[in-house]
Every structure is written in C-alpha cells, then in structure tokens.
Amino acid sequence: MLNFFKNKNIKETKNIPENLSKSLDQNIEIFKNIFHSDDTVIFRSIKNQYDTNFKGCIIFISGMVNIESINSNIIEPLMRVNLKYIENSLVLNTLKNKVISSCEVFESETIDEITISLFNGSTILLIEDSEKALVISTKGYVKRAIIEPDSERVIRGPREGFTEEILTNLSLVRRRIKTPNLKFEFIKIGKITKTKVCICYIDSIADNRIINELYKRLNDIDIDGILDSGYIQEIIKDSPFSPFKTIGSSERPDSITAKLLEGRIAVFVDGSPLVLTLPYVFIEYFQSNEDYYLNYYYASFNRILRVFGAFLSASVPAIYVALMTFHQELIPTPLLLSIATARQKVPFPTIFEVLGLLLIFEIVRETGSRLPATIGQTISIVGTLVIGQASVEARIISAPVIIIVALTGITELLIPKLMSAMIIIRFILIILSSVLGLYGYIFGTIGIFIHLFSLRSFGVPYMLGYGSIKPQDIKDTFIRAPWWYMIMRPKLIAKKNFIRQSRKSEDK
Questions:
Q1: Beta-carbon neighbour count of residue 175 at 10 Å?
Q2: What pLDDT, in 10s, does the model give residues 430-480?
Q3: Where are the beta strands (DSSP E) in 379-445?
Q4: Which of 433, 475, 123 is nearest to 300 (CA)?
C-alpha cells in the first residue's frame, strides 16, 4: 500500500490498488472511494458525437482549476473531434497530441501520482480500455498579488515580494538570473500534505558539499505535514538549541537573488512567502538589501548604527543594574544624586524594576503585533505612555528605568532579525549582572562570544569574516565597501568560483 493511502478510513472502506485498470467504471469507482464524502471533487462523464462507443470521464477539484480552460480546452474538443476511425490503442495518444489544448499534458498509470496531481490543480481524463490517464494542467486557484513585503520595506530598490505560490516565486528569481546554471530541483516533504519544496542554486558557484548536506537533512525529515518554511528551518538547522538562527529567510526576490549570486542555496516551500537561504552567518543580521542600492558611505553608517544598536539593546539594562547594585562609585556624583532622588520611595530593587518593565514592554509589543496595524500602533503607543507615566507617579518604578527600557526597545527595532535572540540574551545578562555586577556582565558577554564562534551553518563558521585583517574578507561586514572593491565572494561559501568581478575594477 502506498504511503499516500495510509489513512485509516480509506483502508477500512476499500482496498485501493496501485495502478489503473482498463475498465472506466472501475477506475471511477476507485477515485470515488478515495474522495468519499468530498463534494468538491467533480466527476464529469463525456461522450463523442461521432463515436458512440467512446466513453470518458474527467475529474477535477472545484476551486483548484480554471473552469473556462476545462470547457474550452478539454470538454469541447473531446465532444467534437472525430474518433470513429481511430483504433482504441491509439485514442489516448491522439487525444494527448492532437486534441487536448494545454501546454502541460502527460500520461500516468499510478493512482498515487494522479491523486497528487488533482491536489495541484490538474484535471484527470480517464477513458475506456486504457490503463493510463491523461493529467492536464488546469490550475486556476486564486493567488495573492505581488506586493512589497511589510516586514522588509525599502526606500530604494524593487517593490516586489514573494507570494504563497511557489511557481510564481521561482519566476521572480528566474527573471533576474538568466543563465542555465540556475537550477531548480523539486522534492516533496510531508506524509500527508506532500508539500512541494524547491532547492535553488547556481551550479557554477554553489558548493556541492553544502548541497549534498542539505539534501541529506531534507530527506531525513519524517513528518505529517509542512505548512510553512519555518517548519523546515527549525528541523534542519545547526545547533537547534541555540537562540541564534543558522538559516536565513527573506520575502524579497532581490535579496534571494543576491544570496544565490554569493553561492548560497535557497529553499522555496509551496504555501510560504518566506524563502530560506543557507549557509547563514552572523553578519547577515546587520545587513539590509537596501545597503547595496545606496551610497556606500551612507550604507556603512547605517550598518554601524545597527551594530551599535544591538550592543545597546543587549547591554544597557544589564549595565544599569550592575552599576546601581554593585558599582555606584563608577557613576558621576551629580548623575548618581539625580538617580537616587528619582528612586526615593520606590519599594522595589533595581533588578525587579528593570525586569518588570521589560516584561511589560514585551507584552505591549506582542499585543500590538497581533492586532490590526492601525489599532496595534495605537495600543502600543498609548499603553506604553499610560503605564509608564502612571508607574512613575505611583512611585512603583523610577523615571531612569523608563528611560533605560525605552532606549532598549527603540534600539531593538534597528535589528528585527535579531529580536528573538536579543530578548533571551538581554535577560541572561541582566540576571548575571544582578548577581555578580559588571563581572557577571563581562562573563556573560564572553560566554555569548564563545558560543557564537563555536556555531556552524552547514559547515561554514558562523562568525565568518570576524578577526580577519584581509581587506577582501572584511569588505562587507561592519562596513559596506564600494562595489568596484568587492571582487571576491566569500571563499568558504562559493568554493567553485569565488571571483565576483574582474580584477580590473580594483584599479579604480
């Protein structure tokens, strides 16, 4: 019995064969048994006006197909073509090559393949005395328009974004990379959903070792269904318990194209607008596709701001707790007196103030993100202002803590890709600082860097480019060098061909 039919209800009702038979009625009965209690599956009998002995039936799923295409390209030609003088053994081949008007038609005899084709929006043609069926492409389900993704808006650059339709997404990449070296290889994952997954790479650049490792991990996936690329991202990632992600994702075709040109591999999942990229290294948290469309001075300044923002978001609360709890002598006297005055009559220690307000900030942020955009922004702003002002006036929280948490929240928004990991790091550093002071903060920071340098993404060091003094290794890290200087691709990623452009550009 095929994997697709390992469904208890189907196995208990009828024994489903693997292949079609020559009897049309028997084949129809097989599919009616498979799709019992499913009124969206349509069975339409067809006869020919010239040959009364011709018997056929088309099967399709309502809502998945283009009805006009079925009427004009399948039903009408089948009724009007003269099949009277064609031998029975040649009827199916004649219909395929001379009658059916569709750009994609193929023969199939396996029930598993035919059934999956129905789910993909195809129409099935069964005829009497044939052990094969015609699978005709008639996709016509509703698709979302190609618009700019809200999570990755830019001032300058393309305004296109991926949709949930995998073939549409592949076409957006194909339009940008016009070479036969661009490869698309499909596999299906999910015992029940049979989700279509496409591995995309440039054969002349990508490392075969990484491609083979990706295939190995994807083939090891044994799960009922894949509904989004996030399933795959979590299952196949390196260091699954690390808060840092080792597989990237993007909704922008231009961003995915740039990754492919560097030798990375993209994974498209049908039904998901987020496309995965690998290997993924730490510096990519701070890179934006817009960096490469703007002047390199401005792009470098923005990137430095993101790095500085990440430092502030992770460190400011922990350093404040350490200074106020253990190292007050390090604070200038006027500032210390100002903070002490603000903390008068506040009943809680500094650690509880900071942790409590940070927790409230995350609750408000999460609430705002789950509501409609206009309502969510209003609740986030009003809620934060009301809670903060009321807490200070009630002497529950001091004003300096409000400033610390506000600065932390604002700088966190500079690096949305790193937000989830930053929340965990921030709380760890705060707890260590509350116990050991600045020593705890230093030990925690050292531990984080040790962890980062120990990570790998499909064999590529996670901190690729850090610690090197070679100009070509650091040209696209904390700063973005001019395009004429970025001659080489990352060597550990694009081992086949690490020359991006002619070395003549270096003379500029």
A1: 11
A2: 999 989 989 999 999 999 999 999 999 888 888 887 766 676 667 777 888
A3: none
A4: 475
Percent of the chain with pLDDT over 90: 7
Question: In this structure, what token pair is assigned to residue 72?
Answer: 């004009």
H-helix or E-strand spanning residue 137: strand 133-137
**Position 396, amino acid:** I
**Cα 130 to Cα 89: distance, rounded to the nearest angstrom:** 8
Query: Can you count the helices (H) and strands (E) in the chain?
Result: 18, 12
Q: Does residue 364 share a domain with residue 272?
A: no
**Element containing residue 310 per DSSP (H, E):** helix 296-325
Residues 220-247: pLDDT tens digits? 888 888 888 889 988 998 888 888 989 9
Q: How far apart are CA 208 and CA 494, in angstroms?
A: 10
Does residue 472 lie in a domain region?
no
CA nearest neighbour of 98 among 87, 114, 118, 83? 83
Does residue 494 sit within a domain? no
DSSP 428: H
Domain assignment present for residue 419? The answer is yes
